[in-house]
Amino acid sequence: MIARQPINLLLVDDHALFREGLARVLESDRQFVISGKASSASEALAWVQEHPQEANVVILDVDLGHERAIDFVEKCRPLGFTGRILLVTAGVSDREAVLYVQAGVAGILHKQHPPEEIFAAIRKVAGGEVHLEPGYLKALFNTVDSTQGTTRPHLTERDTKVMRLLLKGLANKEIGAELNISESATKASLRTLFDKLGVRTRSQLVRVALEQYRDYL
After folding, report:
1. Residues 206, 166 contacting (CB under 8 angstroms)
2. Residue 139 pLDDT class (50, 70, 90 cuts)
């Protein structure tokens, strides 16, 4: 059996009890390595400045007391952070969800989920996928202003189907199963979408889809 690649995590939550409890839960799975912990955005940024490429995924709470989680999201990249950000929160408003997606977070997950679902979301995000709570999708469609223009690239029927399934949070294999195509064909379709829309990541693709192709979806 091939060993799974370790996933290094930075936990950012101002509630020590939840932060330490989550760390213990995550450490029960040998794939997860707790590389760092922080109680605020500023503390997390200081950690990233010292260890810019150590964490594969940052588990970030939205409510950090008098500090804002968005400050970390917006400032971590210039410090050299190349990993992914998963919001694990009690909940965010529709407007906040849009803001965080536009800022480049890879996922939004509610805290009340059982450990198995949290594990799955982290693996998904670490593997380059996007994880959004299903309840936010309709809200995102309703709150994002369409910026349609006459010069936007045309999407084929296949492009549209792939984009819809991507927005549901499906992985490549699951998208392929829904469309009755191979996983390699799914990857090729995603690469086509990336090239057409001028994006490099799934998070960017989700943002462009919500902003510019709402009428297709």
Report:
1. yes
2. low
